[in-house]
């Protein structure tokens, strides 16, 4: 990848369509349409013709695979770029500042840390480095997912201790390295210029996902320490990584997905399984990566309390990628997850189509390559707006509109007026990402996703785990060996990470 492409990939933050294993996607089930209804999968059809999951070499991948359409029969929708501009620029309808002071924004059921756990998951699933935000009618198999589309912690382990030996302590070949002399316990490994030496550089995009990266490294190292009496050599890494992955996947399946899709849909997914995602296919739907999973952007707070003394700071004021992290900025997780019964963590922002103001005007240094003569050689403001960039993806991949998917699923359809789109909006329909955010607000008071967003997000995560023969779901009866009473949460992982000592 060229340096310019690397920069553009880094620019898609936070949690951008970087929404990402080995294995070939097998038979895709046929989908037939009846009127405007997309039926759930029912019978086996021909294998997909796209170049799916072409295996490359490596301990842990990488794998290049295509994306696919979860709803291939639905009509696409394109939207006027000037409409997108008016909707997504500072001061426009999507600016949270328009709500005024005193309007509740904290989600009482999703603590703030889940925003960044979601970004961490994104970086483990997808890395689209080929698509063009200015493109039109890009098909999913015309761009490539450069990493494995499974929850395998490739963003922590890289390609493993053989091919990415620089991530590991040579003493045992299994312990991951972290820290530096002036901050030995509170930062990831960095070179002399501050560049993070980690499995995926995108996990240095902001301080919170960077600190989650460190927590997973420390949890892995604790598991290695616990297994040293039973395993050695390559077997030590292999066994430790397997156990860490299964505990991580348990968190995603039993906690993360449930919080974001709600108890009712979660129960249906457990009982019935995915209805629109092809069995055995190891690919990511473009409706997920380019729209639904960008839900996390709407949950970013305007201000965060990082620890007892570091308060009221914005996400981009905290840490710039490729810089050293100060010890005093170390994240105290009790303000982000339920790690301390005596402290109520700050909530993620409620789902809505209004987002944190700073996301409408990203730092220019993070968005290179979009200089425009019309704007005196500076980037077009539309490209500095994270919502603007998201909605340009609607046009790039010719996604179906939100109402189109709602009709196909047979769920409540919200009109543009209910969605709060401007009266002069040129289309009678709404972009899928925008629709999903407002649907969550209208259907569930913004606490979790509505039926369209929840179905796409929930089915994707369930299918990622079900379609991966190495996931914990294919090891019947397995229960976490860490945690409490056969359960394991992100709070458990963080407590173990905080207690870990390298000695």
UniProtKB/TrEMBL annotation:
Keywords: Glycoprotein, Oxidoreductase, Peroxidase, Secreted. It is found in: Secreted. One of its GO terms (cellular component) is extracellular region. Residues 49-58 have a biased composition (Polar residues). Its main location: secreted. The keyword Transmembrane helix does not apply. GO terms for biological process: response to oxidative stress. Residues 31-58 are annotated as: Disordered. It comes from the Bacteria. The keyword NADP does not apply. PROSITE patterns: PEROXIDASE_3 (PS50292). One of its GO terms (molecular function) is heme binding. This is Peroxidase. It comes from Corallococcus aberystwythensis.
């Amino acid at each position: 990848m060229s340096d310019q492409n690397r920069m553009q990939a880094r620019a898609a933050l936070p949690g951008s369509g970087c929404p990402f294993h080995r294995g070939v996607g097998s038979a895709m089930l046929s989908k037939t349409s009846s009127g405007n209804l997309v039926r759930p999968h029912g019978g086996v059809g021909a294998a997909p013709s796209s170049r799916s999951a072409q295996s490359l070499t490596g301990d842990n991948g990488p794998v290049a695979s295509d994306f696919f359409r979860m709803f291939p029969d639905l009509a696409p929708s394109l939207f006027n770029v000037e409409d997108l501009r008016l909707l997504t620029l500072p001061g426009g309808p999507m600016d949270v500042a328009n709500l005024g002071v005193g309007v509740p924004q904290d989600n009482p059921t999703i603590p703030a840390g889940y925003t960044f756990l979601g970004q961490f998951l994104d970086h483990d699933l997808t890395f689209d480095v080929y698509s063009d935000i200015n493109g039109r009618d890009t098909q999913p198999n015309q761009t490539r997912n450069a990493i494995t589309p499974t929850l395998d912690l490739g963003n922590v382990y890289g390609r493993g201790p053989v091919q990415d030996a620089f991530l590991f302590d040579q003493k045992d070949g299994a312990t991951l390295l972290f820290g530096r002399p002036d901050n030995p316990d509170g930062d990831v490994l960095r070179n002399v210029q501050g560049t993070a030496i980690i499995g995926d550089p995108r996990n240095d995009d902001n301080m919170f996902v960077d600190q989650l990266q460190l927590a997973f490294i420390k949890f892995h190292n604790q598991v290695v320490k616990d297994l040293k009496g039973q395993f050695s050599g390559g077997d030590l890494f292999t066994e430790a990584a397997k156990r860490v992955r299964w505990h991580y996947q348990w968190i995603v399946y039993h906690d993360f997905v449930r919080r974001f899709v709600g108890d009712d849909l979660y129960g249906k997914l457990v009982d019935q399984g995915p209805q629109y995602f092809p069995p055995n296919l190891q690919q990511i739907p473009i409706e997920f990566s380019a729209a639904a999973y960008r839900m996390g952007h709407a949950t970013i707070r305007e201000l965060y309390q990082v620890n007892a003394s570091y308060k009221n700071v914005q996400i981009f004021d905290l840490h710039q990628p490729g810089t050293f992290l100060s010890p005093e900025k170390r994240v105290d997780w009790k303000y982000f997850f339920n790690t301390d019964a005596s402290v109520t963590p700050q909530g993620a922002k409620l789902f809505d189509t209004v987002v944190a103001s700073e996301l409408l005007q990203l730092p220019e240094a993070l968005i290179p390559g979009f200089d425009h003569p019309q704007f005196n050689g500076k980037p077009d403001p539309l490209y500095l707006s994270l919502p603007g960039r998201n909605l340009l993806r609607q046009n790039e991949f010719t996604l179906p509109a939100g109402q189109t998917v709602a009709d196909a699923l047979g769920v409540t359809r919200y009109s543009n007026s209910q969605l709060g789109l401007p009266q002069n909006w040129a289309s009678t329909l709404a972009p899928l990402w925008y629709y999903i955010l407002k649907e969550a607000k209208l259907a569930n008071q913004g606490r979790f996703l509505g039926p369209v967003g929840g179905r796409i997000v929930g089915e994707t995560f369930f299918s990622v785990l079900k379609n991966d023969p190495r996931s914990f779901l294919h090891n019947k009866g397995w229960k976490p060996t860490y945690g409490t009473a056969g359960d394991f949460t992100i709070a458990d992982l963080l407590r173990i990470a905080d207690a870990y000592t390298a000695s």
